[in-house]
Amino acid sequence: MAKTATKATKTATKKTTRAKRATRATAAKPTPAPAPAKPVGDRPFNIVIVAQGGRLQYEALIFAASLRAHSPDFKGRLIVAEPQPGPKWQGDPTIRGDDTRALLAELGAQIVPFTSRHFGQSYPYGNKIEALFALPKGEPFVFFDTDTLVTGDITTVPFDFSRPTASLRREGTWPEIQLYGPGYTATWKSLYDKFGLDFDSSLDPAWPDEFWRRYLYFNAGFFFYDCPHVFGQRFLDYALAIRDDAPPELICQPLDPWLDQVALPLVIHALGGGRDTLPPGLLDGAVTCHYRLFPLLYARESDRVIEVLEEVTSHNRIKKVLKGYDPAKFMIYHGRGRKVRALFDQNDLPRKEQALRNTIKRNGFWMR
């Protein structure tokens, strides 16, 4: 009986000793800190541009070349959305020339077809809406107009894909206020009311009432979101409702070519986005440039933008294709762009784009 008790005591002592050693070992190895949260800018995402036969296919080549040159760490897909022939087009809108298609593929682009069901020839800006349904569902995306140059590393942009935004490089082009018509507040509020959106929370109180900057308004040169199908459906629904059944306040307002830019702020507001979901100075700044047209690029953009344009278009394969497009041929390769630049003082440019256009046209250098 005594031996059994002694044996039990010794066993208990050994267990206690092992427990103490385990405790000391655990204390000696502190619990590893949790891995830091992955920055939103590190999320993989796709880039989409829309290209069709003519000017856009050449701009798409330049976009792809600039992306490859200046964002070598971009791991997503560059998707070139291509409208297909159909009843909404009078002719064939597809990219022309096997050389252009081959070069786009060589530059890492994937051409993806889409069908124009609602816009097409009558409103080609609607391509940027309908193209979104050709993208992979549930994958974050950034849309860019083809007349954009990538001048920096796109992977450094801290996109928060749950909070969309679009380009703030714009002028107060819409609405066009009539002498006896509704003002900015009444016009924009009628649209927010139509879609059951909170108008007051969209306003920027830094600007006075009836000044265009007070109201949510974007250029559609870029925009982004978590899912192209969710964004695209909202964009399509709003655009069609505005086109086909606009509020009375819009009776005197032109919607061509502004329809996409009228619907876009409503979509962004409805999906929880706004003006300031990206740090300033990146898109439409150090990382991308929405140049619009080559004469405007040479007239007003920075020396860095011109340097990038001429650098990425200097390769013989690209040059051979681009020389088939007169604005590129004459502006870039024949030096006409440099003559346009000499017309303007870069430290004292006109505030309005129309003044730039008028000067370029007066001197016989306008091309598009």
Query: What general form does the structure show?
Result: globular
Strand residue percentage: 5-15%
Main sheet record: 6 strands, mixed
Distance between the termini: 106 Å
Q: Any idea of the CATH class of the largest domain?
A: Alpha Beta
Share of residues in helices: 40-55%
Q: Low-confidence parts lasting 5 or more residues at pLDDT below 50? A: 1-41
- What would you say the CATH architecture of the largest domain is? Alpha-Beta Complex
CATH topology of the largest domain: Spore Coat Polysaccharide Biosynthesis Protein SpsA, Chain A
Radius of gyration: 28 Å
Q: How would you state the average pLDDT, rounded?
A: 91
Q: Please, how many domains?
A: 2
Task: List the strand order in the largest sheet.
Answer: 3-2-1-4-7-6
In quaternary terms, these chains amount to single chain
Q: Could you give the order of the helices and strands?
A: HEHEHEHEEEHEHHHEHHHHHH
Counting DSSP H or I runs of 4 or more residues, the number of helices is 14
> Structural class of the helix and strand makeup?
alpha/beta
Tell how many strands the DSSP assignment holds. 8
